[in-house]
Structure formats: structure tokens, C-alpha cells
UniProtKB/TrEMBL annotation:
<dbReference type="InterPro" id="IPR018028">
    <property type="entry name" value="Catalase"/>
</dbReference>
<dbReference type="GO" id="GO:0004601">
    <property type="term" value="F:peroxidase activity"/>
</dbReference>
<dbReference type="InterPro" id="IPR011614">
    <property type="entry name" value="Catalase_core"/>
</dbReference>
<protein>
    <recommendedName>
        <fullName>Catalase-related peroxidase</fullName>
        <ecNumber>1.11.1.-</ecNumber>
    </recommendedName>
</protein>
<keyword id="KW-0560">Oxidoreductase</keyword>
<comment type="similarity">
    <text>Belongs to the catalase family.</text>
</comment>
<keyword id="KW-0349">Heme</keyword>
<dbReference type="InterPro" id="IPR024168">
    <property type="entry name" value="Catalase_SrpA-type_pred"/>
</dbReference>
<dbReference type="Pfam" id="PF00199">
    <property type="entry name" value="Catalase"/>
</dbReference>
<keyword id="KW-0575">Peroxidase</keyword>
<keyword id="KW-0479">Metal-binding</keyword>
<comment type="function">
    <text>Has an organic peroxide-dependent peroxidase activity.</text>
</comment>
<feature type="domain" description="Catalase core">
    <location>
        <begin position="1"/>
        <end position="318"/>
    </location>
</feature>
<dbReference type="InterPro" id="IPR020835">
    <property type="entry name" value="Catalase_sf"/>
</dbReference>
<keyword id="KW-0408">Iron</keyword>
Amino acid sequence: MKDSGSPGGIPAAAGGSGLTAQAVDAIEDLSGVHPGYRRAHAKGICCRAVFRPNGLAAPFTTAAHLQEQEVEAVVRFSGSSTDPALADLLSPAKGMAVQFSLPDGSITNLVGVTLPVFFARTPESFVDIVRSVHRARAGNLRPLELVKEISAHFTESKASFLALKKLQPPASYAESHYYCIHTYFFVDAEGNKRPVKFEWTPVTGVRALSLEDASQQPDHYLEDELVLRLQDESPVFQLAVIFGEEDDPTDDPTHAWPDERRRIEIGNLHLTEIVDEPDGLLMDPAVVPAGIALSEDPILHFRHSAYGESFRRRREEH
Ligand code: HEM
């Protein structure tokens, strides 16, 4: 378990050196520094929410928020871009990050996106790919170099890029399906561990816009839509847990498990109202409570320090 290091979830180990700083620098290079904003998923909107677990996860995990007692949560929906001013239509992948408040006063986070897999297998690949994208955009990568870069990471990135290509503009943050991608382990009262992944699905179903309809929307239509929607209703997301089987990789975020894996719905998240972003909000996906363990996925572990570094930089700029 990674300890949050503070009530706000600031990783104690956050530091500005080595690969962590290189990764955050590489992201900054993509669209410049936007002081005070997250280095990725810069644009977002927060809601207050209540999570009501249905007890079906209890035989598999002792995690306090997955028993039968409801808990409060903060949800942040976001566009994936590093630029907080970019129009919603221009950043195709969307994020949904949920911070649960546990009965003992601690927190845990589940961070999802609208893609089922990630494009990099390791932190080193991540840095390499982000730097190549930057050089290609800036016109500093010769065609042969670009081909070399693409083929070096082709196998790991392929599934993610294909999924990205298929993404349609969402009609609403509240009508999108979010995948938390990494493997975690449920740990039961006897200490048995089972590999699991998490997904959020809207109970009213997923709805997309045609490109033509989306292009007629205002730049920030997803935030506007959510604000209006929450005046009239309380959108609900189901939390599903998917159980991995023996040969399913648990350390590879670029690899999806087969569709037929056992899946159970373990609770509902009710969005209640739009709120200003709470001070110190940090959605570190490596902060887990007793009853959930991190897999050995290197990207999951790396996100702990990368998010801490981004948090440190944006806080200092405030
Ligand atoms: C090497 C891998 C990754 C790096 C370096 C990275 C980097 C970052 C950074 C720097 C932030 C801003 C953190 C902050 O200031 O609070 C961020 C936010 C975010 N990332 Fe990643 N990320 C990685 C992988 C992923 C993956 C696999 C997902 C998909 C589940 C993801 C989804 C998100 C979302 C949804 C947010 C917004 C969280 C919020 O609303 O606070 N990231 N990422």
C-alpha cells in the first residue's frame, strides 16, 4: 500500500529528480506550462457524490468503502489535454477520477479514462513516446526517425491508438464509460488475493455525438452540460469489478483482459452537486486502503511520483 502521506493525499516520496521529472517535463513540453494547472487532464470539473456499495464485493475484499456502508466521494471529470483552454472536442479521451472518503478519515482513489488500455508499458516508454510526439509536432523528427520511433513502440501502443481512433465525442461526461485500466488485487479477510480491474458505467447508458453535432457545440460543452444536468437530476454510475484469470497479465496496462471475464456490479455512485475543486485534491491511483493491493504494474507505481510532482509544481505556482 502506498500511504497518501497527508490528508490531501500528497505522496511523501514526491521528488523532482530522475525519470519522474523527465516525464512531467516531457508533458509540459507538449503545450507549455499553464501555471496552477495539472500537467495532464488540465481542464476539469468537480462534483460531490455518494457511493453506495451493495455488499457483493464483501466476500472478496475488506476495503471499507466496498462493504455495505455508504461513503462520500469527490468526482473530477476532465479532458486529457495538457492545455486547460483546449476545446472539449479536440481532446478525445476523457477522465473520471473518484476520491472516496473512508470511515476512518483516510481516502482512496479510482482514476479512469474512456480508453480501455494505456499506450505505454513502462515509464521509460512513456517518456520516449511523449518526447517523440513533441518532436514530430514541432517538425523536428525526420520521416525515417519517426518510422523508427513508431515501430519501437508499435506493439505496446497499438491497442490504445486503435481505441483512440474509434472514440466518438461524448454527449456528456455522465454518459461515458470509464476504465481504470490497471490491475489491483482484492484481499479478503483470510488474506487471499484476486486480480481485479474496475470500470464505471452510467446507468442510463453511453451516448455519443456525431462529429457534425459535436462541432456545433460550444468549446466547453461538456462542463456546461454537466452543470445543467445536475440542476435537474442525480446521475448514477455503476462500479463494476472484473476478475482476472490465471494467464491474464496483471502488470501490463497496454493489454486488455478477454471480454468474457467474470464481472460483478458492486455499487452505485450518485453525483449530487457541482462543487469548486477541493483544496489539495490529488487523485493518486496508488493510494489504496486495506483490502486492496497494488499490482506490480510499473505504470501504476510510477503514477504515484508523477502525480506528486505535478501536484508540487502546480501548488507552488498558486
Ligand atoms: C506514465 C503514465 C502516466 C503519467 C506520467 C501520467 C501523468 C499525469 C499527470 C502529471 C497528471 C496530473 C496530476 C495532478 O497534478 O494531480 C495526470 C492526471 C490524470 N491522469 Fe495520468 N498519467 C499516466 C497514466 C495515466 C493512465 C494509465 C490513466 C488512465 C486511467 C490516466 C488518467 C489520468 C486522469 C483521469 C487524470 C486526471 C486526474 C484528476 O482529475 O485529478 N493517467 N496524469
